[in-house]
Amino acid sequence: MRDNNGDRMFTGASKYILDDELASIVNISMRLELPLLLKGEPGTGKTMLAHAIAEALSMRLIVLNVKSSMKLIDALYQYDTLTRLNDSRFGDSKRDVSNIEDYIKMGKIGQSFVTPEKVVLLIDEIDKADTDFQDDMLDVLDQMEFDIIEIDKTIKAMNRPVIIITSNAKKDLSDPFLGRCNFHHIAFPEPDMMRKIVQVHFPDISRELMDNAVQAFYRMREIRGIEKKPATRELVNWIRALKSDPDFNVKDLVKGGIPYLGVLFKKSPDHALARNAVSRARI
Question: How far apart are CA 167 and CA 42, in angstroms?
Fold first, then answer.
């Protein structure tokens, strides 16, 4: 689909359901060429949105997984001094050791700049980085260029990427950073939206199984003391497990039975709490 200006619009992907508000902020961010910052609890589809945009618009996806120890230069480029030293010592490389550029490797942001086609750049979990990394990164993304000091060369973006930035809201982002992005908070899906998501993944699912599985899933999320609540991907995998079990009967869910708790809960304390809650409910 295209807008009135002829630009391609994002309306969803084969396995990604989104509401009108999220679709609007994605499309306006692409039109204004601004980074889109997504916040929300883990499992709400922030990361998968970038994959969906790339799929729907037939664009390559480049993913920068932010680490707490990461420096901005690592996301831009790396100078492989060790390989150059080895090449100079042993002399069996086809590279010219006098040409430093042969030993420059682009990082994820650098790759998004030098690729000849427009790409989607996902900067995942930006809240893990320190404030300097965040602000300096947006300087580079604003200017669409950076310098490689070792060869005195400026790399300018061939195309401005579609930039999606995610945050799990574990740490506040700086005001300058927030001021240079569009923002959207992805709330955890309501049951009606979750049913639509389940329907996409399981087109042939019975209404009885879908309704009872979704109801049981939300009950499990409400157990007090749970540290890592099951997310959409856990629900999808859980339903997949239920459907693959020839001995499973949906009536078990109606009676309060919750098989395969280990698919829903990945931490031992959470699993124990869920198991106890299910046992009490069935007494």
Answer: 9
